[in-house]
Amino acid sequence: MPVLAVASELYPLIKTGGLADAAGALPAALAPQGIAVRTLIPGYPKVLAALGGASTVMDWPELYGAPARLLAAQAAGLDLLVLDAPHLFDRAGGPYVGTNGAEFGDNAIRFAALGQAAARAAREMGFAAVHAHDWQAGLVPAYLRFAERPIPCLFTIHNLAYQGKFDTGLFPLLGLPPAALSTQGLEYFGAIGFLKSGLWYADAINTVSPSYAEEILTPEGGMGLDGLLRGRQGDLHGILNGLDTQDWNPETDPHLAANFSARRPAPRAANKKALQEKLGLELNPDLPLFAFIGRLAWQKGADLLLGAAPALMEGGAQLVILGSGEAGLEHACRDFAAANPRRGGVFIGFDEGFARLVYAGCDALVVPSRFEPCGLAQLAALRYGAVPVVARTGGLADTVIDTSHAALVAGAGTGVQVTPGSMPALAAGLRRALALYEVKPAWRGMQKRAMATDVSWGPSAARYAGILKELAARHA
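Predicted structure:
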């Protein structure tokens, strides 16, 4: 069954977060389920440079001020449609922000163009259903709903915090009927809501973990949209993200100092040594090495980690931080490393290869998010034998089994869970992890169970396929 996916980023071509990983892995995961996915993405410079044998399948004499065309191509094993509109996407910086760190002022128009291209491609190229991802594709369900021949659409929420809110003065430029600018449409507290559009007009909705699907129905987790979501609860599904386990494989990963597996764990120690060397830490295999990989932002709890870090330092541990984000948190991370020579290591920025080494070299990965739709860091940690210390929220709660006393006796724990949003609770959880580290059989058992956890897309791909096939049959 042919399905058009629509996303603003796609691993390995262009990535800022987990959306790219999910959108990039799902086509291969859905293929065994009888779903043939072609993904529509914007023609950013990096994307266009990666294309091979592109051909024009559609064109627009004028799309928001200049000509545009739709290219069919393949890259990195992905079947693509690329919206080649240089006036909208040929820019320095990231997909959404410029080199000055500010959001592009015409993001509403850029992603409205993506939505219009998706709706036209879905109609004219014979797709049975559409799968739209996050606010950047939030207008896709609206364009499909108001088309002469509606096509069913599944809308995936990767993070409800990013909503794509814009001034209502832009509405006449969107090409939607006046009826769409209402509370039963795009209108959202006096603004236009791209994410709200997706939630209102999509035939089905899903989040990227079961727990997050429950959390967003509450005022605390719904971020102003909980009422709408409760009204659509019958169409809302929680489907856990996965990893491409062929790509994320410690037995073959070329970025590691030494490859290893659950059956052959001994070489893992070489990665710890390489990580300590790279960041100038004390070369001691017996010191527990904790790590954080992610955005230095309030949501990710980076401030909580820095506040709880003394618990690790007092426990004789090392702490590695890899990430970038808020300037104040970046500065605080550098201060932490300066105050803890040979014990604290900080890498401001992001490097995929180095991140793989961190997963493979640390003993424990800390994920202290205040909320987390799914999280991929803990999945990678499980895969690479790093014990996750996570906040009990969203997908973190769904994927890590807390090693309580009862779980330890039963041999069931894969990590440590802590109360989210609490620095004292995080510090207590870090101390509990340090105590477990000192009991080598218990720690090795956690590592072994972590690496045996199924973090693949298999079960989740079957659920996505089932929803997409049901939508297509319903509209046949």
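Summary: The two ends are 12 Å apart (CA to CA).
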